[in-house]
Write a structure and sequence with these properties.
mainly alpha, two-stranded antiparallel sheet
């Protein structure tokens, strides 16, 4: 797994942390969960932004949201905050399978879609084959 994917998954874990802490903060009225929320949110967004430099935005965002949602629901069920239901497990498993699928599907280069633009206007590919965004987008 490349460094960008590791950062993306770590930021998805932080997403689950901030989402859970937000729920525990009672509208940001309790200081400890509110601080955990703020730190988790900051780390999650920084990690997502960094990963998006090397992973296409659609893939990165889908993985970030999917893993974060799956972890949040799993934690809620494990702690008893949310009732267990077989259907939930099936659909959470579906999210996990979809995330794995996004990692396994080869990324297509933006250069193929753009045609024959000069190389200084194209992004470059990272070591995993996914396209890397240049400074212009």
């Amino acid at each position: 797994m490349t460094r960008a994917w590791t950062i993306l998954l770590a930021s998805a874990v932080c997403e689950a942390v901030w989402a859970t802490a937000l729920g525990e903060s009672d509208g940001l009225r309790h200081p400890v969960p509110s601080v955990v929320f703020a730190i988790g949110l900051l780390l999650s967004m920084l990690g997502l932004g960094r990963a998006m430099k090397h992973i296409p935005i659609g893939t990165a965002y889908a993985v970030w949201v999917g893993v974060g949602a799956a972890l949040t629901v799993t934690w809620s069920i494990a702690t008893g905050a949310e009732a267990f239901a077989p259907g939930k497990v099936v659909f959470i498993a579906g999210i996990v399978v979809a995330v794995i699928g996004l990692k396994l599907v080869p990324a297509t280069s933006r250069t193929a879609a753009r045609g024959s633009q000069p190389s200084e206007e194209r992004g470059t590919e990272d070591e995993s084959g996914g396209d890397r965004h240049d400074e212009r987008g």
